[in-house]
């Protein structure tokens, strides 16, 4: 994602944008070392966008972007021919300066200034000779580009919700007839069916808390009446509660899932969120599943992590047409996902999943490292698929 503090990830690399304190900071900036990058003060305004870039040359350069207008703006440094973006700074307030550090090679470049509530303006083209290779660049993704994959994903979620309704119905029926063993067998397939829909959680609203919430923050913890959904049923099934006690929580879960399925036809996912969700699914896996915070007795955190891999792949499948020409690291993400899948599948023996607490230290470290690396690489997907203005 376009990160806090102005960090832009492009092609898996970092172009760091350093925030300054105000308009005077550019004047106070210490001079660059003789062999260091050269600074150029560049104007940001509708009438003078890109003005002030002197001494164009290949290599690393730092641009002091000074907003002389009365409106906040974002700025791209792009190729005038292809539109590929080499770096960007967002949220440059009136009268303030921010820095953009990029590596440039032989070619043509131009600044594009995008003031708030006004049309974009492209500055003069600057040509650099003398060889050298520019840093990574990617064509901007617009919200229009994201609409088709978002619609396709929304249809995929609808099919998944149909399957989920069937599985929660099986769980409810087992408890209705007093079959606790059957309910324990039915719980995990139902829960994993929900977990695979991870990129849609932001569009589920309050239904997500009702269906998959935890007892964290509730006054009475696991026994609080507001503790509902899959984990409430899980707690009862693995802590000796009777079928009579669990019939009402299971019925409420089944009802919430059915309502979500019925309401989904009128829901609308925000297209601009799809790339961010590709990153957040496994980020959430690291924070909750691989810490055991969501284990209420079933010992199924590793199974959930495996389902989250499926959810991540579902998002990447829809975004792939946008990523293949923008993200050179995509093949490595694919291979790392396959490695993670193989690793997690190895924790399933004779149809049963190893509990997270039963992994030895080496297994825990390997799992955390592999999924942590994936989270970092998927941050580039979030960045590249962050919808940008082009006009």
- Give the class from helix and strand content and strand pairing: alpha+beta
Mean of the pLDDT scores? 89
CATH class of the largest domain: Mainly Alpha
What general outline do the C-alpha atoms trace?
elongated
The main sheet comes to: 5 strands, antiparallel
Task: Give the full name of the CATH homologous superfamily of the largest domain.
Answer: M75 peptidase, HXXE motif
Query: Helix content range of the residues, please?
Result: 40-55%
Taken as a percent bin, the fraction of beta residues is 15-25%
| Number of E-type strands | 12
> What are the low-pLDDT stretches, counting only 5+ consecutive residues below 50?
1-34
Quickly give the CATH architecture of the largest domain: Up-down Bundle
**N→C terminal distance:** 21 Å
Report Rg.
Answer: 25 Å
Tally the structural domains. 2
Work out the helix count. 11
Helix-strand sequence: EEHEEEEEEEEHHHHHHHHHEEH
Remind me, CATH topology of the largest domain?
Answer: A middle domain of Talin 1
